[in-house]
Amino acid sequence: MPTFHPIAWTRDLEVGVPEIDDEHTLLVTLYNDVVRAARQGVSCPTRDGIVRTLQAYAVFHMDREEAWMIRHAYPDAAHHRARHAEFKAVVAALRADAPDDAGHARIATLAGFLRAWILDHIRGEDRALFDWSRDDCPNPLACAAE
Ligand SMILES: [Fe+2]
Q1: Do residues 130 and 65 make contact, with C-beta atoms less than 8 angstroms apart?
Q2: Which listed residue, of 6, 51, 85, 135, carries a Cα 20 to 30 Å from 37's Cα?
Q3: Protein residues placing their CB within 5 Å of the ion ligand 1
Q4: For the segment 114-145, what is each residue's pLDDT rounded down to a tens digit?
Q5: pLDDT in tens, 30-84
Q6: For residue 49, how far is its CA from the centre of ligand 1 (angstroms)?
Q7: Distance of alpha carbon 80 from its chain centroid, rounded?
Q8: How many CB atoms lie within 10 A of CB 123?
């Protein structure tokens, strides 16, 4: 039986832009919902709905970051976008191709990937992006929507 680990939101995950930190907090909450579903052994359709919610929110959030990077000519945007693409591809593949009886193994693989990716990406590419940009625009996503 695999072990599923939630993510506790800690200050080292903050990037210093309140709107982004709020979105990342929600992403972590949605990940923890996946963990809870896996632990409770909920039915496959319910579990898939929870994963689909996380997937949709992640795409929404990443699109906003990417629009901002374009607008501000962020120099490391290609690498950052590639990391987002990796996330989207792995989650889509893990959702798509396992039969129901492989669901538990699939959710364990997915949870492990998500946990490592979210922690690494927020502390790595996202922190670099918002360290670079904070002084340029104190509210990046509002600027991106102009
Ligand atoms: Fe990002």
Answers
A1: no
A2: 85
A3: 65, 126
A4: 999 999 999 999 999 998 887 666 566 666 55
A5: 999 999 988 887 777 788 889 899 999 999 999 999 998 998 889 999 999 999 9
A6: 23
A7: 13
A8: 13
User: How many angstroms does the Cα of residue 1 sit away from the middle of ligand 1?
Assistant: 32
Kindly give the distance from the C-alpha atom of residue 128 to the centroid of ligand 1, in angstroms, as a whole number.
Answer: 10
Our CA dihedral for 129, 24, 66, 74, rounded to 10 degrees, sits at -10
Give the Å distance between the CA of 27 and the centre of ligand 1. 11
Cβ–Cβ < 8 Å for 137, 72: yes
Residue with token string 């039986």: 1
Q: Which two tokens stand for residue 20?
A: 């982004």
Give the distance (Å) from ligand 1 centre to CA of residue 80: 6
Give residue 61 CA to ligand 1 midpoint distance, Å: 8
CATH number of this structure's domain 11-144 = 1.20.120.50
